[in-house]
Amino acid sequence: MCFEVIPAIDIREDKCVQLVQGIPGSEIVCLDDPLEVAVDWWNKGARIFHIIDLDGAIEGKRKNAPIIQKIVDKFRSEDVIIQVGGGIRSEEDAAQLLNLGVDRVILSTAALENPDLVKQLSERFGSKHLMVALDSKKGKISVEGWTKESEFTAVEMGIKFENMGAGSILFTNIDTEGLMQGTETKPVEELVKSVTIPVIASGGVTSIDDIRAIKEIGASGVVVGSALYKNKFKLADAIDVVKGENCK
């Protein structure tokens, strides 16, 4: 596969937002129409959308399903991958999204609380449709919209979830998320070396050099949020830098 630069479309209260370290009320970006945002990223070269229902992640109930459906319907006939997370707490939640046309569902809290759910979904839909999010703060996995800390490390859970059928891992470094002060590659590299499935990194990406560094340690892609919305660099420039490199 080719290394992918993936724009984040985080939805809270019907708007596309960017929060600082996931804290409600810390919005540094707030745009009225998430569908319009998705179309704009598509026009600029994005071929994967990373959509998070922040209300679902924080409150445990998916509130932005109608908006997600609009985005899926808009791009149904296009060559685009749509991965969605936030508030997916059950097999039914995941099934609804996959049946809607979402390509990958992202499990976080539900996977930590009920690891068997990963196996069930993998067996039912196939591992390629299942991504597990490992959100790390000070070396430990956080859950429930980053409000609670678990006792597990990303490497421990990455190995476990790969063995249970996860097709890919999203690793977010909460310590750098949303701060636009650069990324830390060491935690990502440790995870990449511990599993064989693709690892997509997120958190702190501020420059194209950050993207190069993440690619060079073996990650399969990077999710970029605040830096793109605040025009630290252009999506097309980032895609051009890694285009054709490290493809299998």
Q: With helices defined by DSSP (H or I, 4 residues minimum), what is the helix count?
A: 11
Q: Structural class from helices and strands?
A: alpha/beta
Name the helicity range: 25-40%
- Read across the widest sheet, the strand sequence of neighbours is 1-4-5-6-7-10-11-12
Total number of strands: 12
Q: Give the overall shape.
A: globular
Q: Which ranges are low-confidence, i.e. pLDDT below 50, for 5 or more consecutive residues? A: none
Query: Which sequence of SSEs, written as H and E, runs from N to C?
Result: EEEHEHHEHEHHEEEHEHEHEHH
Keywords summarizing the entry:
alpha/beta
What features would you describe in this structure?
A hairpin with a 2-residue loop joins β1 (4-12) and β2 (15-18). The chain has 248 residues and is of the alpha/beta class. It has a single domain, classed as Aldolase class I (TIM Barrel, Alpha-Beta Barrel). The protein has helices spanning 34-43, 54-59, 65-74, 91-100, 109-113, 116-125, 154-164, 185-194, 208-216, 226-229, 235-242; strands at residues 4-12, 15-18, 29-31, 48-53, 81-85, 104-107, 130-137, 140-143, 148-149, 168-173, 199-202, 221-224. An 8-stranded parallel barrel has the order 1-4-5-6-7-10-11-12, surrounded by 8 helices. The mean pLDDT is 89. The protein is built from 11 helices and 12 strands. The longest helix has 11 residues, at 154-164. The chain is globular, with a radius of gyration of 16 Å.
